[in-house]
Write a structure and sequence with these properties.
Radius of gyration: 22 Å
Structural class: mainly beta
Low-confidence stretches: none
Order of helices and strands: EEEEEEEEEEEEEEHEEEEEEEEEE
Strand content: 35-45%
Number of strands: 24
Length: about 300
């Protein structure tokens, strides 16, 4: 879970995880002794002369203006009623490479339609969640990926590995000189679990997920800005057995999960970061409205429904 932040960094106030802002200070010297936030930006006082890897000469005092910066993403996962997309939908007993959508109110599903796959073989995905117009998804080889998605068009693939910043991974830290230590980070144990994921969803600074062969609903803190994931893992089961999940999403204080056994969609009240025991109920499924919800991942459209009604 080590993340390269040479000498200076910024933390997500919701989770404490590092944001993607990563200017760095090399050499680090003894440290940055003073930070002054003003309406115009951030002043940094230190005992060194450079910001970046000997990149910007700023002897002892550096200024980071707010102008030209960016606003942190809100962590929005969409709202219902809306289109809900099945990525790698189960077809004839196998997870397909296709994407399909359905109009879903939270209690009623209708108007199924085919959707573009963006050239992705979604049958190899392992869990997916839409956050702020980007779909974050695991892959069968244990890697984590992201693509922008507006409900119609997919963006280019992004490999998510914030633990190895190419600007810093080969830069020597100045510590442990004898072994040539660099700022190369280390992935958390979550990456070793990606190939076994059966669902993912995001709520209030946490990435929740289920794993094949496990009865638990797990979670780790996640920054939607940097996609850095907490090193430690916790679980919050709400009295349910989570071993038969095939896709999940959360909206309006309700967690929806697809059963891998019969394709039904279950709804569970989700409050204070956990499913509420005794609230699980079936709201949709093959015998109810003709929709089989089993998929590698389920995501809500980031914009109001636009599929057939």
């Amino acid at each position: 879970g080590a993340v390269p932040r040479p000498g200076i960094g910024a933390l997500d106030p919701l989770t404490g995880l590092p944001l993607r802002w990563n200017p760095g200070r090399n050499p680090r010297g003894e440290g940055a002794w003073a930070l002054l936030a003003t309406p115009a930006g951030l002043w940094v006082g230190s005992d060194t002369s450079y910001i970046g890897n000997f990149r910007y000469l700023r002897p002892r005092i550096a200024f980071f203006p707010l102008a030209g910066g960016y606003t942190l993403p809100p962590g929005s996962t969409g709202a219902l009623p809306n289109d809900v997309f099945s990525l790698g939908k189960l077809v004839a007993g196998s997870y397909s490479d296709t994407v399909s959508g359905v109009n879903f109110t939270g209690t009623t599903a209708s108007g199924s339609f085919a959707a573009g796959s963006g050239g992705v073989s979604w049958g190899s995905a392992r869990g997916a969640v839409q956050i702020d117009g980007t779909v974050l998804y695991g892959w069968s080889d244990g890697t984590l990926h992201a693509r922008t998605f507006d409900g119609t068009t997919w963006g280019a693939d992004q490999l998510i590995d914030p633990y190895n910043d190419p600007l810093w991974s080969t830069v020597k830290t100045g510590s442990h000189v004898s072994i040539g230590e660099t700022y190369r980070g280390a992935q958390p144990s979550f990456y070793a679990e990606i190939s076994s994921l059966t669902s993912m969803f995001y709520a209030n600074g946490r990435l929740y997920y289920t794993r094949a062969g496990s009865t638990h609903l797990y979670y780790r803190a996640l920054s939607p800005d940097s996609y850095i994931i907490e090193a430690s893992e916790s679980s919050s089961d709400g009295g349910l057995n989570w071993s038969s999940v095939a896709g999940a999403f959360q909206a309006g204080g309700v967690l929806y999960w697809a059963s891998s056994l019969d394709g039904t969609l279950h709804a569970v009240t989700f409050s204070n970061g956990a499913p509420v025991a005794g609230t699980d109920r079936v709201v949709s499924g093959p015998a109810i409205d003709g929709v089989d919800w089993r998929a590698r991942g389920l995501v809500i459209s980031p914009r109001p429904a636009h599929g057939p009604n």
